[in-house]
Amino acid sequence: MRPAELIERKRNGEEHDPADLAELILAYARDEVPDYQMAAWCMAVYFTGLSGAETFALTDAMIRSGDVLDLREALRRKVVDKHSTGGVGDKTSIAVGPIVAACGVPLGKMSGRGLGHTGGTLDKLESIPGFRVELTTAELIAQLRDVGIAIVGQSDRLVPADKKLYALRDVTATVDIVPLIASSIMSKKLAAGADAIVLDVKVGDGAFMKTLDEARVLALEMLELGRRAGREVTCLLTDMDQPLGRAVGNALEIREALQTVRGDGPADLTELVLDACARLLAYSDLGIDLKEGRRRAEAAVADGSALGAYERWIRAQGGDPDPRALPEAPVRVTVAAPRDGVVTRLGALAVGIAALELGAGRRTKTDPIDHSVGVLCFAKRGDTVVAGDDLAEVHARDEASAAAAAEAVLAAYTLGDEPPPAHGIVLDVVA
Length: 431
Ligand code: URA
Hints:
The protein is an alpha/beta fold.
C-alpha cells in the first residue's frame, strides 16, 4: 500500500479496495503515514466521497486500531446506548440515563468533551463536585452491574485511529464530510459495545447538519454502518435551530437535567428525553414495545425511581448529587424584551457562542472551562412576551463578560407579530 497512490486514486474518484483502505488507516494509527498525506486523502474524500463499502471498511479499520468492549458478554444483558451529534444546551443523555436505568435497563455510554459552541456531556458532568469521568473497564462494568448506568470518558485505547484522524480533520477543514462523520461516530459507538443505539442527529443553525435533507443522509449512513455491524440503530432528527431546553452552560444544564428527571423539565427537553427512553426500552431485553417503553419511562419519572437512579449514579462516580453543591456564577444579568411580540427566532449558534465567550466552552482542546457560567433562555420560539419581560438570564464571572453576553443573547432573539410555524422537537425518525 503506497499512500500517495491511494490519494491519487481517491482524487480521481476511484473506489478503494477495502483491504488497501484498512491498511492506510491502520498504518496511520501506527504513525507510519504522515499527517500531510492523511490530510490530502481526507480532502480528496471531501471532493469525491466514499462508497458504502469504503465507509464500512474505514469504520471497521478504525475499530480494529484499538480495544473493543463486549458489554453483552460482560453483563450477560443487552446494553443500550444513545448518542447525539452535538448542539447547544443538549443535556439529554444526563436525563435519559437514570430514567432507563430506573426501568431496569443498563445504559453504558462513552462521551466526549465540548469544542467550540457545542457542549460536551463530560464537561457538564464534571461541574458536579467530585464526579469522576475516568473509570477503568472493570469499574465501568461493575458500575453497570450494580447501578445500571455509567457515563465515562472515552479511553485512549478505544478507536485511537479516530482520535488522531478527528484531530487532523479539525485543523484541515475536513470535519464536515458525511462518510467521515458517520464512520467517526459509529466506530466509537460500535467499539464501546452496546447492542442497540439511539442516535440523535441535530439539525439546524447550532448543529453540523443545517438542513433536514443533510441530516437524513448522515442518519442513513450511520444506520447502514450499525446494521452491517449487527447492531440495532434508530436515528432521531431533532431541532437545533434554537437551544434545547432553557439552560446553556455546564452546571446550569446539570440542574435542568435533574429537573427533567424529577418531572419539572422544559417541554422540548422532556419530550426528547421520554422519546429516546421509550426507544431504548423498546430495544432492550425487557421485551416491550414503544408504547409500553414510553409508559414505563413516564412512570419512573413520576414515582421518583428515576431520581433515585440519578442519585445512585452520581454517587457511584464520586459526585455529590445535591444540586446545591453545583457551582454558581457570581454575576447575573437579565435580558429584557425590547418590545411586545412573539419570539419568532432564537439562534442556537449565537447563544452557544455567547456561552463560549462567557467561559462555558473551549476554543481549543486545552482551554480551561468555567462550569458555573452560561445562559438561561426563559423565552423560546413561539412564546409571547411583553416589553420588559425577562427573555433570558446571563450567568457570568464578571460584569464585563456579563454585559457582552447579554448583548449577544438579545441579538439572538427575533421578536415579531405573528407566531412562527409550530413543530415538535423530533422532526423525523429514520429507522
Ligand atoms: N463527532 C464525531 O465524533 N466525529 C465527527 O467526525 C463529527 C462529530
